[in-house]
Design goal:
Elements lengths: L7 H28 L5 H28 L17 H29 L2 H29 L1
Length: 146
């Protein structure tokens, strides 16, 4: 997406991409909360469950913004392949959070280029949230690796 000539349609498309990934995150965290096993299950189950409300709030914000711009929110999540062991689950979460941050930074620039500074500010908040998710996952991985 060329951020120098952003149209409303471009912005709606970008936000729908983000919305599909938020749905994916809800599905991933919900599944992993149920699938976590072993000695670390109590910690991991809580960790995964605690992420769900925040991802849902991001999804609701995005759906509201898409409709405010005149678009229709997607109902399709981004594709998801679940991992089957704890280490792989956390590594998949790390990768997803890293990709999410990159995508939101790109779309934040697009929002600013379009002139929607309120959206850019909201995306800054989501970038902060996703960065915190990534950092907490990194800490868990370090703890589980020792």
């Amino acid at each position: 997406m060329d951020t120098t000539t952003i149209t409303k349609e471009d912005l709606i498309e970008a936000l729908n991409e983000d919305l599909a990934h938020e749905y994916q995150a809800v599905l991933m965290y919900t599944s992993y909360a149920a699938m976590a096993s072993g000695i670390h299950r109590p910690i991991l189950k809580t960790f995964f469950e605690d992420e769900i409300p925040e991802e849902l709030a991001h999804a609701q914000f995005l759906a509201d913004k898409i409709t405010a711009l005149g678009g229709t929110p997607t109902t399709d999540p981004a594709p998801l392949t679940l991992a089957d062991d704890t280490d792989s689950m956390l590594r998949q979460v790390m990768a997803a959070e890293s990709e999410t941050i990159e995508r939101y930074v790109k779309h934040r620039r697009a929002a600013e280029s379009y002139g929607d500074f309120g959206l850019a500010a909201e995306l800054d908040d989501i970038i902060r949230d996703e960065t915190q998710h990534k950092e907490e996952t990194e800490k868990l991985l370090r703890t589980l690796d020792t």
